[in-house]
Design brief:
Blueprint: H1 10-23, E1 28-33, H2 46-49, E2 55-61, H3 66-70, H4 84-101, E3 105-107, H5 122-128, E4 141-142, E5 146-147, E6 149-155, H6 172-181, H7 185-189, E7 198-203, E8 206-212, H8 214-221, H9 226-237, H10 242-250, H11 252-264, H12 273-276
Helix pairs in contact: 1-4, 9-10, 9-11
């Protein structure tokens, strides 16, 4: 993008920003109105991070590669995160907005703020920006690409928000399975009534109920990242036996957790099973 100008065509600016995002690695890009985050709790809305916020730019992409989905050795996902790529792009967009248009732009940091809440719900931002739709499994799904990582930039640049995306879930294959068996691929692989994390209901081709056991899912998803590290550290500090304590510190679980934190740079999920069986975007995960 060129140098900042005094006269700004905001529609043109929006098109330029989205084109810049797509050219630099995003698969999707959208804009959300900063005032649309009415369902976000107080303290976790765009203007709470950037006063006088007008818009939220959302970019998506950098999902695991097709080979990652095929590997039976799930541990490799702990130390080869891909989500940092989309965060890097969002940082570039923030700089470009400030340099080109002269408005404030703030990259929403990953991780959590108070009470283990994200600074801003990136999933909610992606929904409001029309980058995807909610799913029975939880993640925001793009109708073509399925699961991907998202990043957001809050800005005082007044940009028109995009329309909400067409629902990607349930997919036609999921509807067929629901009509035959009363379940879907994601609900079947992790049923909440059998110790899993997911539940829900479909009526007239639409999702009408969702049930998600966040605590149960968290113990399986973050087994080798910050929560896992904290749990291992506490157990190690409380272990009175010197030899056992040393074994815990140098064992594979603690070592993998350190690799996950220091190398992957982002919170990495080690489960992915609900997304592995999801038919949305499957063609992008299928190779020879």
């Amino acid at each position: 993008m060129a140098e900042a100008s005094t006269e700004i065509d905001f529609d043109k600016a929006k098109a330029e920003i989205k084109a810049y995002a797509l050219k630099n690695g995003a698969l999707v890009a959208g804009i959300a109105d900063a005032e649309a985050f009415v369902d976000a709790p107080e303290g976790f809305r765009p203007a709470d991070l950037l006063p006088k916020a007008k818009s939220v730019i959302v970019v998506g992409g950098a999902q695991p590669r097709a080979g990652d989905w095929q590997s039976p050795v799930y541990e490799h996902m702990e130390t080869m995160g891909t989500s940092e790529r989309i965060n890097s792009l969002a940082l570039k967009i923030a700089k470009a907005v400030e340099d080109r248009y002269g408005y404030y732009a703030l990259f929403v940091p990953p991780g959590v703020n108070r009470a283990n809440q994200p600074f801003l719900s990136i999933g909610y931002a992606a929904l409001l920006a029309g980058c995807g739709s909610s799913s029975l499994a939880g993640p925001v799904l793009h109708k073509d690409y399925g699961f991907m990582y998202y990043a957001a930039v809050i800005t005082t640049l007044p940009l028109k928000g995009d329309a909400l995306a067409e629902a990607a879930c349930p997919a036609p294959e999921c509807l067929d399975m629901w009509n035959e068996r009363g379940t879907t691929p994601c609900l079947d692989i992790c049923p909440i009534n059998k110790g899993g994390c997911l539940g829900g209901k479909i009526e007239h081709g639409k999702v009408v109920e969702r049930d998600f056991n966040r605590a149960r899912c968290g113990t399986r998803v973050h087994t080798h990242w910050v929560p896992g590290f904290q749990k291992i550290l506490e157990a190690t500090l409380n272990e009175p036996d010197k030899d056992k304590r040393k074994m815990m510190l140098y064992g594979s679980l603690f070592t993998r957790s350190l690799w996950s934190i220091t190398y992957a740079a982002q919170s990495q999920a080690q489960c992915f099973e609900c997304m592995r069986v999801c038919p949305v975007g499957k063609e992008h995960r299928t190779k020879k």
